[in-house]
Design goal:
The structure holds two protein chains of two kinds.
Chain A lengths: L2 H4 L1 E2 L2 H8 L3 H23 L2 H18 L9 H19 L6 E2 L13 H4 L2 H9 L3 H11 L5 H8 L3 H21 L9 E2 L1
Antiparallel strand pairs in A: 2-3
Helix pairs in contact in A: 2-3, 3-4, 3-5, 3-8, 4-5, 7-10, 8-10, 9-10
Chain B lengths: L10 H11 L11 H35 L31 H26 L4 H23 L3 H27 L15 E2 L2
Helix pairs in contact in B: 2-5, 3-5, 4-5
Classes of the chains: A mainly alpha, B mainly alpha.
Chain lengths: ~190, ~200
């Protein structure tokens, strides 16, 4: 799983049919992006049911707007942005419940080198999901989807320094979770 | 990634990023497409109704306006002549000059005219699957009416059947006319199988 998995080139013919509302073309696009889009939504919102809602809404948004897609940028990037926006909107709707990041005093910026623990995918996934949603989202958008801090700041409505701090502190927290099996507890300092 | 500062990523971050990227992809379970498809039908249905109904209605109106038989237009046609193309229906038993006899003659003439128009349009316009299915359905109904016309003993029996036949032909003309109206679209042909590949 990486940003590359989203980089799927859709034939222009399929896009042309999808613009006209052709259900088979839309399903073809959906099937092509089903996994990377759902995985991205799942990493941001944190639970399968919410991720399904995000996927559903994102695909409907895609259908509504596909006629406006002019092809100046890659289609996959355009679709990925829709998914990210829908997922972040979902988090905003959950404000006060699930929208906390790690604040200044929450996490020491330690290195915590645990390369062997990184090899255990299930453990990494559990630790990731134990992070506060906003921290997890920023971490994922930066490390996996390869957005810049500037782009993340714009998407989340936060500052560049906020994005940087969430990446640093989120990484530290994740490593500590891997080391100690500690469960993360959301703090209330930063909200989307 | 353009715009990213390489100094942002320390070695520990590189290992973390690699670990996150190595996590497996997930898929929604159960399959999300059926629900999306239903939502798509609901949303696109309204749009498509107007997209297809308006040209169809226009085509039907055109047919009605141009082809409705008038005495002046069809002076040479015997009012009691059976349908030339189908050869169905009884000889007229209505008194000559009665309104029923006139209507029956007009319906037969209209039926012939519509059949010629449909044949001409069908030869020049491609049909998509949806239109083709609708056309076949209407043609089946016309076939049923023809069977009934074949056993009709009197004009009084035949008159409602001819009305029904003409109405069905008008429906068929609208469907064929719809395809004809979109024949210039150029994109109605089935697309090639979609092929996707990852961009490196």
């Amino acid at each position: 799983m990486s940003a590359a998995s989203f980089r799927i080139e859709v034939p222009e013919l399929v896009l042309a049919r999808a613009r006209r509302g052709d259900a088979r073309a839309l399903e073809t696009i959906y099937r092509a992006f089903e996994r990377p889009a759902y995985t991205l939504a799942l990493r941001i919102v944190g639970d399968p049911e919410s991720a399904r809602e995000v996927m559903h809404d994102a695909m409907l948004r895609l259908i509504e707007r596909i006629a406006q897609f002019r092809g100046e940028a890659p289609f996959w990037g355009w679709l990925r942005q829709i998914v990210v926006n829908e997922a972040l909107m979902h988090l905003r709707r959950m404000r006060g419940i699930a929208l906390d990041g790690l604040d200044e005093g929450d996490e020491p910026a330690g290195e915590g080198p645990t390369p062997s623990l990184f090899a255990d995918g299930a453990r990494v996934e559990r630790a990731l999901m134990a992070l506060p949603p906003l921290t997890r989202s920023v971490l994922w958008l930066y490390h996996v989807e390869e957005y810049t801090h500037q782009e993340i700041a714009e998407m989340t409505g936060k500052s560049v320094s906020f994005s940087k701090s969430q990446v640093a502190r989120g990484g530290s927290r994740l490593r500590r979770l891997l080391d100690t099996h500690e469960e993360a507890s959301p703090c209330l300092a930063a909200t989307l | 990634m353009p715009g990213r500062d390489p100094l942002d990523d320390r070695p520990a971050d590189t290992a973390l990023a690699a670990a996150l990227r190595a996590l497996p992809e997930r898929a929604p379970e159960p399959d999300l497409w059926p629900a999306l498809s239903r939502a798509l039908e609901l949303r696109c249905g309204r749009r498509h109704v107007w997209r297809y109904l308006l040209p169809a209605a226009a085509a039907a109106a055109l047919v009605v306006a141009l082809l409705w038989p008038t005495p002046a237009m069809h002076e040479g046609v015997s009012p009691a002549a059976p349908s030339a193309s189908t050869g169905i229906g009884p000889a007229s038993t209505f008194p000559a000059g009665s309104s029923a006899a006139t209507e029956l003659a007009q319906l037969r003439q209209r039926s012939r005219t519509l059949e010629r128009w449909i044949a001409a349009v069908t030869a020049h316009a491609p049909q998509d699957g949806r239109d083709l299915m609708a056309a076949v359905e209407v043609e089946d109904l016309i076939g049923l009416v023809d069977v009934q016309l074949g056993v009709a003993r009197t004009d009084a029996d035949a008159l409602p059947l001819w009305r029904q036949r003409v109405a069905l032909l008008e429906d068929l003309a609208a469907i064929r006319g719809n395809a004809f109206a979109f024949a210039e679209d150029g994109d109605r042909a089935e697309a090639m199988p979609a092929t996707f590949h990852l961009v490196n």
